[in-house]
Design a protein that fits this description.
Largest sheet: none
Radius of gyration: 16 Å
Structural class: mainly alpha
Distance between the termini: 29 Å
Number of strands: 0
Number of domains: 1
Helix content: over 70%
Length: about 100
């Protein structure tokens, strides 16, 4: 993401951005840990689990956009663009490393 920050001329707030993104991942892990607990214990049916999973995904995307906007002090549109770029990079990395997980 440092290259993206340089492209958008946001390097002076890059450290705050990385710290904020790391804390978002903690919140994300806790949310999905709770959802996994609900699903594995049978406390939630698959329909409820999928609904909660979708709501959590939308919440995390919204919260991530807010934190990116706040940490970098940028407009909403730019924060959304950075989030989309980040998601694309993550999906590319995931697609490239997924075959290694099956070995």
């Amino acid at each position: 993401m440092i290259f993206i920050s340089k492209l958008f001329k946001l390097t002076e707030r890059y450290i705050q951005f990385i710290i904020a993104i790391n804390w978002i991942s903690v919140v994300e892990i806790l949310i999905y840990f709770a959802l996994t607990g609900l699903a594995t214990t049978g406390l939630a049916s698959s329909e409820i689990f999928l609904s909660l999973n979708f709501i959590s995904f939308i919440y995390i995307l919204s919260y991530s956009t807010f934190v990116i906007r706040t940490a970098l002090e940028i407009p909403w549109v730019t924060a959304i663009a950075l989030l989309v770029i980040q998601l694309i990079i993550e999906f590319i990395i995931l697609a490239g490393t997924a075959p290694l997980a099956t070995v």
